[in-house]
Structure formats: C-alpha cells, structure tokens
Design a protein that fits this description.
The structure is a homodimer.
Chain A: E1 3-7, H1 11-20, E2 25-29, H2 33-42, E3 59-61, H3 64-69, E4 73-76, H4 80-91, E5 100-102, H5 115-122, E6 128-132, H6 137-141, E7 146-151, H7 155-165, E8 170-175, H8 178-200, H9 205-225, H10 230-233, H11 236-247, H12 252-261, H13 266-271, H14 278-292, H15 298-307, H16 313-323
Parallel strand pairs in A: 1-2, 1-4, 2-3, 4-5, 5-6, 7-8
Antiparallel strand pairs in A: 6-7
Chain lengths: 330, 330
C-alpha cells in the first residue's frame, strides 16, 4: 500500500488527504496539535470543514518529520506565504526521489516564484508538479462528480498519482504542462476577485460572463508567454477552475471581491477572514510577471490597484468597461 | 437618420429595437396587432418584458411590409421555426442590398441550415450576418454594462451596425467569422440545457464548471470543422455567451434543463412555456451536423436523447460522467 503525506490541514489539504486515504496509507500534517488530535479522535476538522466526517483511516500528526519520513508521495497543501519554510523543513526528512505535489494557488511574494519552483529549490532532485482544477473542497468531500488535473513533466509520476487519487466520483486527468496548469490556478484567484466585485456591485450574468471571458484571455496570454500550452487554458485547469471559482459563493477570492464591490475596505475584509484569499496577495506578483513578459493584463492591474487600496471597486470596473472599446482579439 | 426594422417583438428583438431607437428611426414588427398597439400606446411589452418601459421613440406595427419597406437595416428577431416564412414575406418589400442581421440561435429543422443560410436563400443578394454574445435581454435593457458581437463577412457592413447599436453601456465588437459566431449561439443553447440538468439534480459549481468546459470544447470542435475560427469560441460569442446562459436563472434553455434535472417530463415542460427554448428543438439538428462532420459531441448527444424522451436526465448525466475517463484533450 503506498504511503501518502499531506502537509497542511486546511480545507483542500484535508479533502485531498481524505480522498487519498481510500487507496493509500495517508498521514495529514497539521501545524496545530489540537487539530491533529481532533482529526485522530473524532475524525472531523471543525476549523476548516465544519459538518463533514472524515474517513476513520485518515491519521493526523503535528510532527512534520513523522508525516513525511516514510512517504512515497508528499502533497503540499500549505498556502504560498508559508510554503518555502515548510518545504525546507520537510526536505530534511523526505526520502530521495519522492514526488512532491503542490496544491497552492499563489506566488511567492518578492520572488514571484511559482510553488513548484519553490519546491524544486528546497526539495532538490524531487519531481515536482501540481494538482489543480475546478475543485471546491466541500463539493468533492460531499461526493459530487468532479474532475481534476495532475500536472507533472514526467508522465510516469503523473500516472501514479492519477491512480492514487481517482475515485468513483473524482476523475483525474494528467497534463504535462506544469507551468500552464500552475499559472492558471494563480491567475484565476485574481480574476475571481474581479468577478466578485461585479457581483458585489449588483451587475448580472452578462457583465460577469464578459469579465470571465476577458479574464481567461489575459490568463492565457501570460501563461503562453511563460511557456504554457494554449490547450491548458481551454481545459479544466484553466477555464474549468476559473468558472467554478467565479460562480461559487464559497470561494474565498470571490467573497473578497463581493465585499470590495459592496464598498468594504480591503484591510477590514482581510482582517475578518479565517482563511487566506491567495488572490489578494498574488495580484501584484502576477502584475509583476506580466510586466516582465510584456503582457497586458488590464483586469489583474485593476484588482491589484483595489487590493492595494489605491483604487475603489467602482472606479476599477469603470476603467475596465471604458477600455473595452478596443477590438476583442487584440 | 438611418432607418432600422426589427422583425419580431420577443424579449430580445424588442430589446435590440429599444437600443437602436436611440440612434435610428426604428420600427418593431409584432405578429399580434394588440402587442404593436400596446408598444405604441403605453410603451411596454408586457408579454415578453414585463416591468420595463420602452423608449417613446420606438414605433411598432403588425404590418410587415410597412416595417421593412423603408429600412436601411433589417434585424430578424424571430425564432428559428418561423424564420424562413417571415424572411420570405419580408423579401417582397425589403429594398435591394439592405443588410439582414439574425438574432435567432437555432437551426432549421429538417435542413439543419443556419439562419443566415435561410436568410440568404430567401433574401437573395442581401448581406447577412448575426448579432450575438452574452446578452440576457433584461440586463441590457436595465442598462447594465455588456458587450456583444456583430458578425458579417463584409467588414464595412459590420462597422455600420457597430456604430448603430453601440451605446454607453453596450459595447459592440465586430468579427468576420459568421459561421463560428452563429454556430456558437446555436450550440450554447443545447449545452445550457445540460448545465440546467446539473443544477436541477443538485450538483454544485465543480460539476457544472466541468460540464461547461467540456461543452465549449465540443462546440469549438464542430464550429472549426464547419469553417469557424478557434478564437471565436474563446471569445464573447462562444465562451462569453455560454457562461452567461449557463449561469442565468432567466435563460429559457437553462430553465428547461433544471426542470428536466428535477425529473419533469419534456412534454410537460415545453407545454408550460410562453417562449421558445431553442435548444430543445436544435439538439437533434446539432447532432445531425456533428455526424455529418464526423465530430464527437457527447453532451449534445445526451441532451438530444433527454429532449426526445428516450433517456432521463439522471441516466444522461451518469453516461457523461462515466465517459469522462478518457483523456481531457482527445
């Protein structure tokens, strides 16, 4: 039986660990020992997945070395701001050559590195890739039919993970385009903030669909400039994840956008949240990548301005609409 | 001042006529003289746009010859099943060379012809094209920001219509890809039925986003096989319109799908509707086009089966999900 370590017991990390525990000996690392104890004793994660029962087979620990030391696969479910530190700590105990899968959908602030780049720097010699797609944790845990993408350059590793994570209600596809899949996940959180602003200001389905369509176009422009494949952005990791996130009232990034659209201040919104909305932090980093690759990203630009407090949502959306007089495909 | 005739006083025809009346002398043809009288006397269309006031400048008539005889542009806002008959009748009075814009998003049953093909056959020698995009009538009429696409092979005609229909809240783009834009509008109504089935069965945003993503892929496959451009399907006429329709509780096709997903019979649903849900009628026609062009369209296939009463929604969705084990991009 393969042994899986999932590092990080947030809603998605816990969900992936719960799925993996059906076919593998799975350990979930939680930073707080109280949370590890709760998962072991009563099989719930009331902080991040209230109301859900976790599989009895899923074990948790607050000891990182214990979690990763015996693992055949390490899944990194920590947000981007803590990713490098945890990856470096895990590196001391992970056995050589074990694949590392990132679940994080953000960039490292300052360096603008993708999480697989951070992982490759800290876990030298390990194959690194991502698990991504239209995957709202609570729907997957409720057993609703869904699909997801595992991206690794090495097809053999991807196939191994595909078998490990596939289940009766979750289909896993493989894709060799790590850059495209990973970047799509990062940018969609920024676009989801803009879509939430649209909702929060009371606009309807036309306006929001237009914004999502333009958002995917600018995501693909950056991704292709960075070496990603166009097909990735038209698939589940690109369009699929973007649509699910922009539609969902449960998405943190979408929620931040709605609050901004209703006129709340970014500082107040972030202070009131229990979880990280990656798009808030990554919007300036994505903009930095866009500048570096000479790609125009007008929606990301406005979201970054609103998230830094230099513009309000109303002004930002008005700018996007007035800009729209250019041709659709240029 | 240019003179515009809009033929058909349903919700979208009336909305386009209301927009055009700001910049052009506009006449709206209604089949029922009571509706024409209501529009002229009290400036409302209570059958199709209850609660909205129409511009005082918008005139209506039940006399087709009067409506189209002096027009510089004819906009055809009739559903696909009545399109040829009305186009043939209009042809007797339309002046030579006047452009004809189709708003219909269906195919002719039996021939599987697109509405611009029907228009070209009945209005010989007229430039024909479409107006399409993420355009829920009531949101546009409420003045919400939106964008739309005018597709004509002749760029000069497209630019003329762009100027005529653009307004402070509606941006009009041009696209020379008539086949792609028109086919996208047809297929999206079929996919919207499938998305509605997903909603009706209680599935969430993951499942629906996955279905929409796959739906766009099969729409693009057929469109490209028929001579359309890939970029069209990634833009407002393709992805934009699809997302808006699948998200909207106001979409007729989406509503039909929800009712099917809740277990209602297709005959009862159609009998209870005031307006035409184009996707119900066009699903077998789209499937016929797919077979003719040797393109796989699994979602359209299942929708056609449910709409013909040979399969129920639950079985159809189960078939789609089990089929999903193939690779994402093949």
């Amino acid at each position: 039986m393969p042994r899986v370590a999932v590092v990080g017991a947030g809603s998605w990390g816990t969900t992936v660990a719960a799925l993996a525990s059906a076919a593998a000996d799975t350990v979930l690392w939680a930073r707080r020992s109280e949370l590890a104890d709760e998962i072991n004793a009563v099989h719930t994660n009331s902080s991040y997945l209230p109301g859900f029962d976790l599989p009895v087979a899923l074990r948790a620990t607050a000891d990182l070395a214990e979690a990763v030391g015996a693992a055949d696969v390490v899944v990194m479910g920590v947000p981007s701001h803590g990713f490098r530190e945890i990856a470096a700590a895990a590196a001391r105990d992970v056995r050589p050559g074990v694949p590392v899968v990132s679940l994080a959908k953000g960039l490292e602030q300052g360096t603008q590195m993708r999480m697989t780049e951070v992982a490759a720097a800290e876990l030298v010699g390990h194959p690194v890739g991502v698990l991504t797609g239209p995957n709202l944790a609570t729907e997957i845990l409720a057993g609703q039919p869904a699909a997801s993408v595992v991206a690794f350059v090495d097809q053999a590793v991807a196939t191994e993970l595909q078998e490990l994570l596939s289940g009766p209600t979750l289909r896993i596809y493989t894709n060799p385009d790590v850059v495209g899949c990973e970047l799509a996940g990062v940018v969609k959180n920024v676009i989801a903030i803009a879509a939430g602003m649209c909702d929060g200001m009371g606009f309807g389905d036309n306006s929001k669909a237009t914004l999502i369509t333009r958002g995917l176009a600018e995501m693909a422009r950056l991704g292709i400039a960075m070496g990603g494949e166009a097909a990735t952005f038209a698939g589940l990791a690109g369009m699929g994840d973007l649509i699910a996130t922009c539609a969902s009232a449960r998405s943190r990034n979408n929620s931040v956008g709605r609050a901004l659209g209703q006129g709340q201040a970014i500082g107040d919104i972030v202070a009131a949240m229990n979880m990280v909305a990656e798009g808030v932090k990554s919007s300036p980093s994505v903009l930095e990548l866009a500048n570096r690759h000479a790609v125009e990203m007008p929606i990301v630009e406005q979201v970054a301005a609103v998230c830094s407090g230099t513009t309000d949502a109303r002004t930002a959306l008005a700018r996007l609409m007035s800009r729209a007089s250019k041709s659709e495909f240029h």
